[in-house]
Design brief:
InterPro entries: LysR-type_TF_proteobact-type, LysR_HTH_N, LysR_subst-bd, WH-like_DNA-bd_sf, WH_DNA-bd_sf. Belongs to the LysR transcriptional regulatory family. The protein is α/β, with parallel strands linked by helices and 310 residues long. The chain contains eleven helices and ten strands. The protein has an eight-stranded mixed sheet, sandwiched between helices. A two-stranded antiparallel ribbon has the order 1-2. It is elongated and about 75 Å long.
Length: 310
Amino acid sequence: MAGKISLDQINWDDLRYFLAVARAGRLSGGAMTLRCNQSTVARRIDRLEETLNTRLLFRSTGGVSLTSPGMLLMEHAERVESQLLGAAEAFDGDAQHPSGVVRIATPEAFGSFLVARHIHLLHESYPDVQLELIPSAQPVSLSKREADLMVSLHRPEHGRLKVRKLADYRLSLYASRDYIAKHGTPTCVEDLQKHQFVWYIDDLLQSNEFRYLRQLVDDAQIAFSSSSIVAQHEAVTSGVGIGLMHRFMAASDDRLIPLLPDVTIDRTYWVMYRTDQQGVSRIRAVLSFLDRLMQVSRPLLAGHEVAAAA
């Protein structure tokens, strides 16, 4: 950046517009985030570039990308944003009574069958905290503030994130009574080659952590596939095939019969959030809720009550 820039030359609100566009990858996306029109966003970016005497964004019909000075500015602007958010949190009132919206992204099974089913636990303790749930295998960006918290099947190796383990969980094989009546009960892993399965759409899987069926059956015959674990659950209950399912989903469904109880897959849930949010009271409230949720759900997660099919 040419020349020395004084603080009174920078309009700090312009940095907010810059961050919104940089995170969205489009001027229109930034405008949507900030709830203003696109021409206002473009004008703010132009003014910031003029003040700093450098180009911050490459613009094209496909969107925008950061220049080298733009990447440097984004790093500093995010630090300023984090400090301001921390200051706002310090003055948000009684920290013992957190309030506000927290958005959490989770795998579908975790979100739909654990979080949603037990959301009353959050409201009992923190009635003024509103949870927004994104139950999907599609990745979200915490750095772009697409979510405040994320539950994941893998622990990130890098990034400015606070990460901690939530719980281990177990998957087992299940089928409906109709399926067993028509196709018989497998008595060993080798028998599975003769059966049909319900599974994910392989080429849409976002993480290798979801590819566990192939660990059991290399060449599984897939009768139905879906990116939704809820849809898979319903398909298994309909009798179309065997499902490798979360025990906390399937164990309480009397339409399903567990198969080969010694054949299991174990995985771990991790929760992560940005380091600048570790002191935010509403974030701490949701983390406390997740801890309580894991405590009450631990038997289901492990599936200790599951018995083999007769």
